[in-house]
Structure formats: structure tokens, C-alpha cells
Amino acid sequence: MPCDGAGKEVVPEAIKVLRAAGADFEFEQFDVNADAYLRTGVAIPDDVWKQLAAADAILFGAVGDPRVQDPNYLAGVLLRLRFELDLYVNLRPAKLYDDRLSPLRREDRRRTDLLIMRENTEGLYVGMGGRFKKGTEEEIATQEDVNTHLGVTRIIEHAFKTAKREVVMVDKSNAMVFAGGLWQECWKAVAAANPKVKTRHLLVDAAAMQLVKDPSQFDVIVTGNLFGDILSDLTAELVGGMGIAPSANINPSSGRGLFEPVHGTAPDIAGKGMVNPVGAILSAAMMVKHLGVPDMADAIEGAVESAIRARECTRDIGGDLSTSQAGDAIVKRLKD
Questions:
Q1: What is d(CA 276, CA 262) in angstroms, rounded to the nearest whole number?
Q2: Which residues carry out catalysis?
Q3: pTM
Q4: pLDDT along the chain (336 residues), means of 10
Q5: Are residues 157 and 137 in the same domain?
Q6: Residues 6 or more apart from 256 whose CB is under 8 A from it?
Q7: Is the dihedral of CA 247, 14, 2, 277 positive or negative?
Q8: What is the signed CA dihedral for 73, 78, 80, 84, rounded to 10 degrees?
């Protein structure tokens, strides 16, 4: 699903790299994008939805278009996929492939290899709330933060299954006492059941400070939908920017997964051959790992790192290549 803007440029590069890596997958491309929405008023047609729901995995580009101001478009594509397929685990890794990409002054604290694990189906993004007396000076707007015992418990449990050395739980329980109270109770219960894993709790403002101070201290950070969205943008910048940030949306029980670069449609540069394909390519690597081919995933990641270190990449991370040329540089390393 390339969808819109930059997505139309980076998804073909990701597929090109998958083919070079030897991926024997069958792909089917769907016409889900702003053009189709403007024609039909339907975000995802019913027949397409049935095929997406049956797919082994979905490789996704980016959704959004300046011509479409209706929030139902975004909600009807990406949020529907996340919510209705119950892709409750959002994985956003941040790994520094070259020291020159780090904005941190201290060399001993630049090393970054962490994972933001974001609860993906609850929180403030569920769309509950409303606007009373809209358009008047007395208007009241409410946005509800939904947290369930099931949802909080299962994301924390998955964090413990994934961590190599430590799980850090991030919330704002000192101010958001109801939602935070539930997170705290579930956190303590799951941590008690996993005594061999080191644990730490940080308030979200302290977590942001510590990530800038020394990202090398972190392994897995587990948090809610909003905080995970914000902190993962911060960690992306610590390793070179949004252009190289991958993500996965998965359900560990059903095996369903949607894989997408963190960046958006980038309307200011889309269509100019300037978009960095690395985020989509690394997302494709996460996809093949999820599908049970970890050696292929490692090979793709290794080729990406080699290309970045050689500065055979797009301008945003220090190279001078176009989107397609940057994809070719990674393909070349896979074939050599």
C-alpha cells in the first residue's frame, strides 16, 4: 500500500531491495490513496479490506494529502488497519548506524540501539470525545484517553518478552492519576512475574530528558499511544532523522502485521526524487523478520548500514543520491 506522496516513492524501493535479497513473496498493490478517496469518498473499499485482512503482511507507505482535510480519510486507512486488525504492538526501533548522524556532542553517549514499544489501539487516538457549543466563545472540547486492563497488560507483557536487558515503563501517572494508576498497577504485576528482567519507571518528561542526555542507557521503552508517538520521533532524530526510522504494527497472537516508515507523505519534497527510502527499506526488513526470515532481515539491515557509512544515500543523511539511486546502492551491496 504505497498510498500518498512519499509513500509512492519509497515502497517500490523497499520491494526492489526485497527482491534483491531473495524474497520469494507474492505482492499485490492496492489503489488506496487520496486520489481514490476524492473520487469515491471511500477510504478503503470493502473488497480491498477483505484482502488486506487476509494478507500475511502489509507493506505501507504513508497516508495524507493536502487536498484532503477530512480527518475521516486518515482514520479510515491507517487507524482502521491498526484498530480493526488489532495491531496493538507498535515497534519503533532507533539504531545509530554511523556516529556522524548523531546530534549529541559526547561521543561516549551517542551509541543508540533501543526500541520504543507503543500501545497502538487505545489512548487518546481512539477518537472519543466531542466539541460542545462549537464555534462559540463558550466552546468546550474534550478528548478521552482510553486505557483498558487488557490493553495495558498485553503491551507490557510483550515488552518483557522482547527486552534483552531492561524494560523502562513511561507514563505521566503523577498528573494523569486514573490512566496512570492503571498503568502502574499492570506494570507492577507484570514486572513481578518477570523478576529476571531489570525494570525502571520514568515519567514522560524525565524520559525525554534522559533520551537526550544518554540514549545508550535504554533497551526497551514501553508506553502509551501518545507518549510513544512523541518519544519515537525524538529517538529518530537521535539516529539521523525521520527518513531512516522504520516501524511495525503487529499482533503477536494473530501474526498480522503492518510495516511502515515513520515519516509522513512529505508533500514538500514528494515526487522530486529526494525522499529517503531507508525507513521503508528497514520496515521491509522488519516485515521479513516477522514472517520468519531473520537472516534476510539482517542482510538488508547490513546493506543499509554499509551504504550509509559510505555516504551512498540521500541528502538528508549526508549523501547526494536520489531516492532510486539510494535504493540501488543498497541493492548492489546485497548482490555483491
A1: 12
A2: 125, 172, 205, 229, 233
A3: 0.95
A4: 97 97 94 95 96 96 94 92 96 97 93 97 94 96 97 98 97 96 98 97 98 97 98 98 98 96 95 97 98 97 98 97 98 93
A5: yes
A6: 57, 85, 86, 87, 250
A7: positive
A8: 170
Closest CA to 201 of 161, 179, 173: 173
Specify the pLDDT at position 336.
82
Phi and psi torsions of 186, nearest 5°: -65, -40
Pairing of strands 89-95, 113-119: antiparallel
Q: Give the C-alpha separation, 276 to 6, whole Å.
A: 9
Report how many domains make up the chain.
2
SS3 content of the chain, % helix, strand, coil (to 5): 45, 15, 35
Residue type, 222: V
Residue 27 lies in a domain: yes
The whole-angstrom separation of Cα 239 and Cα 99 is 8
Residue where one domain finishes, among candidates 178, 213, 238: 238
